[in-house]
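Dear colleagues,

I hope this message finds you well. In preparation for our joint manuscript, I am sending the Class I SAM-dependent methyltransferase (Halostreptopolyspora alba) sequence together with its predicted structure, so that both groups work from identical material. I would be grateful if you could confirm receipt.
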Amino acid sequence: MSDTGSVTDLVENNRRHWDERVPIHTASAFYDLDGFRAGDEDIDRFQLDELGDVTGLDLAHLQCHVGLDTLSWARRGARVSGLDFSAPAVREAADLAVELGLDHRARFVTADVYEAIGVLGADAFDVVYTGNGALMWLSDIARWARTVAGLLRPGGRLYLAEFHPLTGVLDDAHGATAVRDYFSRGARTYDSPGSYSDWDAETTYNTVTEWHHTLGDVISAVAGAGLRVEFVHEHATIPFQRYGALVADGARFVYPDQCARLPLMYSLAASAPAR
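The corresponding structure tokens are as follows:
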């Protein structure tokens, strides 16, 4: 692990990493594009309940990757704009939108998340959405929150569903013991060959960098950007087997029965002030 290198270089390494994994992901059972084409969606039930009806709303999905969640919201009636820094991911998302006949209410653009206002438009959205495994790739969470605030119309909402920051500091086997410092910020650079969708995949760009943000960091950044926090909910379910001890519960994973549980995910909603 290393903490060296400029943020620009670290982000560029991350982009190469994600570019290379796009074809691995789209071919994988983990993403199951055939199932998605047939009508399946992979959004947690709690997300659907908490965000509610999106029919007729303009929704921006930041860090959208290959666009499955983005297009799920389009299927539910939203006009969606997906943004990601990986051009191959954006191409896959745009092609899938055309294939599914959703391109009339879905657009995808390649850009850094901090450029979203200039690319997507200020005060242009009723909802800004971000999903699993996005915030850890951002070096500046306060700047991200200001970007979200700039995208939202008066009265618009941020909704995010994210892996709980505790999951990044607990042991991989049981998810019960802290093996890293929860309060340690800064860049954490490490090697990650293969992919979470196929650990045996042969890959070249394996050096990645994450930035750890505590739950307090995220809430404070959102509030500091002028958004009113509506709720923060913690959840004991996660869409993949983050720890060896977790067991399947339908399409999600949970701690076993009679096991002391820790939060695996959290969701947050916040609203922009009316004018």
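For the figure legend, we might mention the following. The radius of gyration is 18 Å. DSSP finds eight helices and eleven strands in the chain.

With kind regards,
E.M.
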